Amino acid sequence: GGPAAFLVTTPYSLCVCPEGQNVTLTCRISGPLADRHDLLYKTWYFSSNGDQSCSEKKRNGTQKSSLGGQASHHGVEFVPDHHGAFHIVVMNLTLQDSGNYCCYAVEARREHGKPHTLQVAHGFVELQIQQALPSSVADITAAALATGACIVGILCLPLILLLIYKQRQAVSSRRTY
Is 84 within the bounds of a domain? Predict the structure, then answer.
């Protein structure tokens, strides 16, 4: 029959990350390749509209395994192969980075000097960015918690003093007997 198919898988289908952080997205190629000497192109695409195949084909980074080259674009770094996996690092995440990241592996063979596609496989990761709270909101929350703790402490103080007083009375009354 035809060439044995390979698979492209992602370790997780959803990644939720805080704004301002860096994230590494990973895809893994598994299964046999028709010819080890053929070209294997690995590409990442991005879709902001929930398309799981990223058919708009907005490119994030491409790497040809035969060249071992590296391309970067708009805070995105393509990380070369490592044991059948390929990655992109999206740096300094913003809310606009939310969407689907699709990784494609394309196996090709050179025929008459031109690459001829043998098979294509892809996987995707949905990236959700959590908006960071403004520092003023965080400061107000911390101040409210500290104030609340002080109030509770002040309200408990008379009770603690009363318990100490009762305890001392009990000890001194035992001594008189």
Answer: yes
Q: How far is CA 157 from the centre of its chain?
A: 47
Give residue-wise pLDDT tens across range 31-60: 876 555 567 888 899 998 888 888 877 766
pTM, two decimals, is 0.62
Handedness of CA 43, 49, 51, 56 (dihedral sign): negative
In a domain, residue 148? The reply is yes
Q: In this structure, which amino acid lies at residue 9?
A: T
Per-residue pLDDT tens over the stretch 83-101: 678 899 999 999 999 999 9
Give the closest residue to 27 by CA, choosing from 47, 44, 2.
Answer: 44
Distance CA 25, CA 61 (A): 12
Domain interval for residue 169? 133-176
Q: For residue range 120-142, list pLDDT tens digits in order.
A: 999 999 999 998 776 676 678 87
Amino acid (one-letter) located at 89 = V
Together in a domain, 79 and 109 = yes
